[in-house]
Amino acid sequence: MARKKHHEEHANHEAWAIPYGDLVTLLLAFFVVMYAVSSLNEGKYRAVAASLASAFNAPPSTIDPIQIGDNLKPESTIGKPTAIPRGAQNGPASTPVLDSPLKPMLESKMRADRIGDGNMDAALLAASREQLSSLAMQLEDALADMVRARLITVRRSDLWLEVEINSDILFPSGSALLDASAQDLLGRLAIVLRDLPNPIRIEGYTDDRPIATAQFPSNWELSAARAASVVHLLIRERFAPERLVMVGYGQHRPKADNATDAGRNANRRVVLMVLAAADTAAPSPATPVARPQPQIAPQTEPPFPAAPVPAPAAVAAGAHAPSPPSPPPQGDS
After folding, report:
1. From CA 260, how far away is CA 141, in angstroms rounded?
2. pLDDT digits (tens, 9 = 90+) for 201-257
3. pTM for the structure as a whole
4. Per CATH, the architecture of 103-280 is what?
5. String of b and e for 134-161 (b: at least 16 CB within 10 Å)?
6. C-alpha to C-alpha distance for 184 and 170, rounded to whole angstroms
7. Sheet of 160-166: strands edge to edge?
8. What is the rounded distance in angstroms from the CA atom of residue 16 to the CA atom of residue 70?
9. For an engineered disulfide with 124, which of 30, 89, 120, 289 has Cβ 3.0 to 4.6 Å away?
């Protein structure tokens, strides 16, 4: 009997297509999900970034997406601090650093704002002069011994009064701690100024001798700390804190040549600027005020120099002169 011929079963060579289709589908779903995750709302992202920057007091680095209307015009740079170019930081200054040429502009604008706008008439200006003149005489009487010894200088103008005190009678060398005699001296000054409404601005200055200690890495810190010490003493003498403003100029506003001992001694100073009272339209104590060059005689119009400012160290960069190989002298700076 003939055997039935067995035919081989046909193999399905397209069985791979089903798992391949599943794999492609999964990959497509994966990339769709990844794309959806990576697509952020740019406006919301910028708003969150701006709010975080504002919370940490950082300048905004992105454009505010919610801003509506015309863009604000850039603010004027007049009267803002500007970086002083690098220059004669190494070695003593050959000439004193004069005040900014913007001071005549600020002075004229101050008068125009208060006289032209009707906020200060001739009577108020006369009252300001009379009050500051009387105050200057009281201070000269209270500090007569120091004034005669030229350790304290009292200067006045129409809108402010300056009391310049040599730092050597207030602080030990390289220190910002007031000694007992300094506290007594400032106490005599406080008796005259305590009950007045005038705002007071305290300014600290040093000479150009470098100081590099853990407490005072540079003359900036030393001058600011000395001004702050005077502020704290005045507050202990029951001065209203809102009347007081302090600033440290370091070595960058010399009034004399730092090449000599006498010049460095003159540059180490603390200045109390007593502004005209509010009822005589005095400028705000928080606003830098144009003031005259140091003079002994009373004056009514401060002479401002027209010469360009010599180039001290770059303030904006916070740079300081490199210290010599040996430890820097701990001058009173």
Report:
1. 31
2. 999 999 999 998 999 999 999 999 999 999 999 999 999 999 999 999 999 999 999
3. 0.51
4. 2-Layer Sandwich (3.30)
5. ebbeebbebbeebbeeebbbbbbbbbbb
6. 10
7. 152-156, 160-166, 269-275, 200-205, 244-248
8. 63
9. 120
